[in-house]
Amino acid sequence: MKKRDIILNSMNEEIIPYTEPDWLHSIECTNISKTLLGYIPLHWHEELQFVAVIKGTVELHILGEKINLKEGSGFFINSGVIHEIQAKTLNATYICWNIGITLFDKHIQTKYILPLIQEGNTPYVIFNPSKERHSRIIQAILTSYKCYINKEKSFELIITIQYLICIKELLHEIVLESSNRYPIYDQRVKNILEYIHTHYRTQIKLETLAEIAYLSKSETNRLFKKHIGRTPFTYILDYRLERSIDLLIGTRSTITEIAIECGFSSVSYFIDKFKKSFHVTPKKYRDEKGLRNR
User: Fold this and answer.
1) Taking a C-beta distance cutoff of 8 angstroms, is the pair 1, 9 a contact?
2) What fold, for 191-289?
3) pTM for the whole thing?
4) Confidence of residue 2 (pLDDT cuts 50, 70, 90)
């Protein structure tokens, strides 16, 4: 099984590594505990995403919710929706299938795909394997992964068919039955996150974030916590620590230089917070992980 760390740009948008730029499918298997951070950090992607949990228990953080998903279950994440994935068990492993939203001709795109993604109508759907429709989606994910890895004959056609099955079942669940009510994703949260990701090296004030959201400070704090599950300043600290990991393993910068680069007020504060989050000092973390491209 391939160990995979997601690639994020400065806005925390995931950059999907397609092997065929004209065929926008990427299917990966990830053991969360073996990734660089030990979890999948808060991020979003333009692609539609289907996930099947194949080992252990995964915890999905989305819209302020923490949802535990056991082996055999799964979920759908819509385009542009911010989420994070944690491991509840050491062996927590999932298959992640990302699909570009411009994959089909204009008719299919207009009639079926765009209604699914427009205005964040359905940020996510949890797949319960006991439901027949959900079970078919999970099976389609597993079938697609097997074809993708083994490069079976005509695997692109098989995977495309499985994707259409997923879309059909998903739309039936959401549009035709209308049996579930899903929370609406608030774009203002993404605007705040984009500001944080751009300015994390400097001091960030709640007043500035409130101006971005066109809300009061207290309402901004409440909105952010509702969707992200953390206050803005807890998230800023977490994000600075995540960025420090990139510098620890990707550069020869000193610990002091990394602390300054990531916006920490002092080296001692950086070391203290790093140790509380990752249970080792920055130096020991670097020694254990090693520098990339030595």
Assistant:
1) no
2) Arc Repressor Mutant, subunit A (1.10.10)
3) 0.86
4) very low
